[in-house]
Amino acid sequence: MSRRSKKCCLDATDWLPGEVIYWLNVPSFPPVWSRLSKNNGANVLRCTPESKCGVYDIEIPKELWSLWGYLHPTNPVFHPKPCDKLSWACNILACCAAKLYTLAQWTPRLLDTIVISGDRYYRDSLRKFQGETYKFTLNDLCDACLLENLRFKVHTEMVLFGALYERDTSSIMNLSKALINFFSQHKMGLLHCRHLRALVIGRDNCNGCVGGDYFMFDCQSKDYPLFREGDCRPYLLRCKTLQMLLYCIVMALEVRCKRVQFALHKVDIRYEGPVPDEDDDEIKKLQRIIARSKEKPVKAGISRICNICRSVQCPKK
């Protein structure tokens, strides 16, 4: 095995310092990837060529990058009354996308596709659910889903649990230890905290190589500290190290008390191939919803859907 491959193997199972609540109180708060900050972590003005790496925004050079979509699960084009459980379906679709695409292939369009397909997946699962909506859980999502016209079989299972900010000497597993254990056996999964709060975590599917960058997908964050009041967008963070991923998770969850329980679920994905396009695809469905709401319809293409959302503008100098 080459030295580079050996380093990748050790990276996920090496010792990792435990998370600390102090990270939320340091002067750099809000998080470095917050859209409220005019500059990135290297003090480079956002929305300039120097702050970009392809479609990604550079947050910390050679350490952290971010990718932003436009459609959010709480947008009224999906449901008049937003439901956090819809984000669970979007998280499963994000895992499907990670199974099929490397991080280098992700785009803002893919993030919007995940949200649109997640809405359909959630509604299909809800129709088959025999019970009250408030009793709907992650395990009640269907075992088959579509990302656009690509079909996947999914299976979720809780594999680890613990509590945030526990000491390394505690008998209860903290998030640091949980991540080390999780990535020693699994490629991607869901992190659940505070009942409904959930994130997707994983490692890049870099064409079967031993190691790759870590990532975190979040489609629940809204308002402060990442956005202005009323703003929300799905995003993906690409982290070079497991330490950086741990830091990003803590900042995204923003849990300010100790011993809050969390659970890690593995997500097994099997890609089954494309299915015939439906005559009434999701874009047309959204167009009809907008038309019924007496809003201006989207003309064509998923990239134009951002016209119905309030996108975050670059801060003025």
Automatic annotation (TrEMBL):
Matching Gene3D superfamilies: 3.90.70.120
Protein name as it appears in the record: Interferon kappa
Organism annotation: Zeugodacus cucurbitae
Organismal lineage: Eukaryota, Metazoa, Ecdysozoa, Arthropoda, Hexapoda
